[in-house]
Specification:
The protein has about 400 residues and is of the alpha/beta class. About 40% of the residues lie in helices and about 15% in strands. It binds pyridoxal-5'-phosphate (PLP). Pyridoxal-5'-phosphate (PLP) binds next to helix 5 and helix 6.
Length: about 400
């Protein structure tokens, strides 16, 4: 039985006959790649090496080759990738890291795990990414890093952000968990800051059959530091220069990811095609937009956009969009009802994220209050994700789009 409010993993389990089009599924992808995945499994089983071995090393090389970056370090998850990157920069107690208020928890959790303070800033209404003016205003003498999250598949406005960061001498850590393959000009997101941190959680653009992550950098010294921190701070086994942790990537996951990486470009194109199908159908709906929306990533006046109709589909700003998620905004009074109605019609949806980070219980001691970040709060009340994963057929997406429009008319 599909549970609308169940934890993430329940919605990934494909045992549900009722949901005709789930929000996400790897079932078809794995059927298609069954031969390659089985070969990968058998290779690792026969090798007798299960953690940080030749498969991880080969994946690191292939991944950095894909991105065109110098160094890549395979790690246990995207959350740990962020933690390691911040630790490698020396972030610790007394330091501040600037983080958007509306993002997945790990973007800020990684800061707190190191004893530092996340300093939240509001998101831009165009692409949900960092608003550069807000970042500039939040910089203090304690700022040790800026966390540029590339949310939902679209890269943040890196050029002005790097200008602000470089002027202040502050490193930028890119959280690319959701946006592998997104480009800023000719460069891949993740290759512009001091570190690019990726996740291979199954729902990501490149998903493992379990957990995994990768940190990329252009700096040899930082790469060596990451490699050391990944294994309890020991360059030489059992001789610990500093306190790291167990952040090792498994051979099995690396081998599976190597089987999938050559397909990434095809899958990204399919995601884009699905997004275009939605947008072309939604464009015919008179009560939809983004007609009045303008890019405001680099603008102090962020009050300019409003949802005019009943549906606001993703707005493409200044970078390419990989559509890891297809996020719409629906007026607050209709969002949950639309979700329920789509559920009864066999369509899976998700709310990313129902509570922004500055008002999370675990951050209450930071002193933020409801009302501090209006856009982040508005997004939490209005966003609704629709199925976009690559294995959807065109008619699946058409069906979802028409059901959304039909349901909205009924509400
Ligand atoms: C923006 C963002 N950052 C970090 C992470 C953490 O990645 P992982 O789940 O691999 O730890 C995620 C995963 O959901 C994410 O979406």
């Amino acid at each position: 039985m599909y549970r609308l409010k169940g934890p993430k993993f329940q919605e990934l389990v494909d045992t549900n006959d009722f949901v005709k089009i789930p929000i996400f599924s790897l079932k078809k992808q794995h059927e298609t790649l069954k031969g390659q995945l089985t070969d990968a499994f058998e290779r690792v089983m026969a090798s007798g090496c299960f953690v940080l071995g030749p498969e991880v090393e080969a994946l690191e090389n292939e991944f950095r080759g894909f991105l065109g970056t110098k160094y890549a370090v395979g790690v246990s998850s995207g959350s740990d990738a962020l933690l390691l990157a911040l630790q490698a920069l020396g972030v610790g107690p007394g330091d501040e890291v600037i983080v958007p208020a509306y993002t997945f928890f790990a973007s800020a959790g990684s800061v707190s795990r190191l004893g530092a303070r996340p300093v939240f800033v509001d998101n831009a209404p165009c692409c949900y990414n960092l608003n550069i003016s807000s970042v500039a205003a939040a910089i203090s003498p304690k700022t040790k890093a800026i966390m540029a999250v590339h949310l939902f598949g679209q890269a943040a406005d890196m050029e002005p952000l790097l200008k602000v960061a470089n002027r202040a001498g502050i490193p930028v850590v890119e959280d690319v968990a959701q946006s592998l393959g997104a480009k800023v000009g000719n460069q891949y997101a993740g290759t512009l800051g001091s570190f690019g941190c990726f996740s291979f959680f199954p729902t990501k653009n490149l998903g493992a059959l379990g957990e995994g992550g990768m940190v990329v950098t252009q700096d040899l010294e930082l790469a060596e530091k990451l490699r050391k921190l990944r294994v309890h701070g020991a360059k030489k086994k059992y001789f610990h220069e500093e306190v790291g942790g167990n952040f090792r990537l498994h051979e099995l996951q690396a081998a599976f990811l190597r089987a999938k990486l050559p397909k990434l470009d095809v899958w990204l194109n399919q995601r884009l095609g699905n997004a275009e199908t939605y947008i072309s159908i939604f464009s015919d709906f008179k009560s939809a937009g983004p007609t009045s929306l303008e890019c405001s990533c680099n603008d102090t006046l962020i009050e300019k956009t409003a949802i005019e109709g009943d549906l606001l589909w993703p707005f493409r700003c200044h970078s390419s969009h990989t559509f890891n998620q297809f996020i719409n905004r629906v007026p607050q009074k209709k969002r949950n009802a639309l979700r329920e109605l789509l559920h009864t019609r066999g369509i899976g949806t998700e709310v990313y994220y129902p509570r922004p980070l500055h008002v999370q219980e675990c951050f209450q001691d930071l002193g933020y209050r409801e009302g501090d970040f209006p856009w982040a709060e508005k997004f939490s009340r209005e966003t609704l994700a629709l199925p976009i994963f690559p294995e959807n057929e065109k008619h699946d997406i058409e069906l979802v789009a028409h059901e959304v429009l039909r349901s909205l008319k009924e509400l």
